[in-house]
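Data availability (excerpt). All sequences and predicted token strings are deposited with the supplementary files. A representative entry, Arrestin-like N-terminal domain-containing protein, is shown inline so that the format can be inspected without opening the archive.
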Amino acid sequence: MGTSASSSVQIYYNRSSNFYSGGERVDGIVSLTNTQDNLKVCDIFIELIGELGYTTQETRSTTDSNGNSTTESYTEYHRIPFWTDRRSLAQSKDGASKTVLGPGIYTWPFQFSLAQDLPPSTMPNPDRYPHIKYYTRVVVDRPWYKPTMRKNYPLIVFPRTTINYMNESQQPIYFGDQNRKKLRLQGHLSTSSIVPGQSLCFQLTLDNPERTVIKKIRASLVQCRNMTQDRREDIILRTDLPGVVEFSGSSLQRNFELPVSSDYLTPTHSFTTSQRNRPYNFDLFYELRLEVRTHGVFTKIETKIPVIVRVGPMNVDPIASDNDLPPSYTSVVGN
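Structure token line:
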């Protein structure tokens, strides 16, 4: 019987949530259930890994037996470990022989300490590229002729305190734009920074001397992840502003509030790491995007206003990932 069918390994954290702040301790137990008579292992260890992931678009060429060449495009996935900490759990004494485990349940405690200045996990959608993500991985290293057992569990790392921003983050921010029909959009955000659970408050002024019919004004809060090699945008919220549908008046001034969910959002930040003397820069930022849609061709207005998202009160409900979270530590040690 193969290892995957007869043996299983689990990680149990000592808390019900997978949220940790920089500087905290990550601890729990690793449990190995073995049903084989003699399970030979070279090493059993657990790692805590911080990963910067990004993609690049590549091409490759192939030539068939007739000499015809074809070129195809594909996506290359890159994973750069910028933080790795490892703990050996069970290793043969001389490092060369193998440890033999009989049937039963084996447990080992583990403990890691997170650095204070780790960059925060990318949320929401932590598995999409580019990203910063963290996970623990337990490895049961077996002889070369046997498959190695590996299992990952995600962690969400967030800053203990607010990341330093410019002093202007609490000041109003002004914006404006105009189309070729002299429709002018102006306004200001009451503050250029928010925390999850607050509302984006802004005032809009429309000058519409030609009484262009405005279909609607759409507002979106967008999270942008940016690297030289890769870029991604996620819509955090999107809505059509009330009271501005098929509007044809000559002017309008109105205040709006966009409530932002209290669910955890990665704060605005920048991170730099390197591998083989090559630097990698990761920027995560937010924009409020306003789109004025009008009747006619090439007449809409689009404007982008930077918004700083700061660290706020944590909603620490566990977050699902490709790997399900383990049961709680207490449920294991209590059995």
